[in-house]
Write the structure tokens for this entry.
Amino acid sequence: MSEEADRIWTARVLTLFPEMFPGPLGLSLAGKALETGAWALETVDIRAFARDKHASVDDTPFGGGPGMVMRADVIDAAIRAATENAADVPLIYLSPRGAPLTQARVAELAGGPGVALLCGRYEGVDERVLAARSVEEVSLGDFVLSGGEPAALALIDACVRLLPGVMGSADSGDEESFERGLLEYPHYTRPREWRGMEVPEVLLSGHHGKVRAWRLAQAEQTTKARRPDLWERYIATRKI
Ligand code: SAH
């Protein structure tokens, strides 16, 4: 096997709260995969790179205003340590200003050697270190978290479940939301009747072609109703 293939997909997390990891990623699918070595996790404690005797990692913003800003020199030293043996790993700052995370980007990241994730706190990070290190900014959505850690946990979770051997069935992800540019169709299981509601007849028919057609129609209907943005794109790609 080549050295490249031997390399374990690794998440490196730069944070002021290393004890938040693996957190929920230590359980269930991701936790089992972590135990068996399907992926690896390293945390870098940003505070260890503080330069003064008070171990300060932040300071007041130039220009005034509320809150504190994480110092460029401290973050830079933490980045250097985290990426020392991983120059080819994408460096991402979790930030509400970033590009919204998509399943397509998740799939790209899962297909690479891993990720290095910078978690902000307070008002965020001094802009200069983002520029100096050409950091990619990624957002979890249009809302504000108190820190980047929950966003990092979500991003890693989304990547890990795509790694080879992590999900039980290799093809269980193929029809999922976003894989075809559509949201997923609705699911049903036993009991067949619940509170007077029946399972759609076609799902009991055993006719795979009809089931597939029904599911596609449902996925299209849901996407059209709930996410006009995705629907427009889906229609456009179908015309090509
Ligand atoms: N002052 C900033 C918010 C800082 S929140 C602003 O108005 O944009 C503190 C930290 O939480 C950020 O540095 C970032 O790392 C993280 N964070 C907050 N919201 C996030 C989101 N939607 N996606 C990803 N990270 C987020």
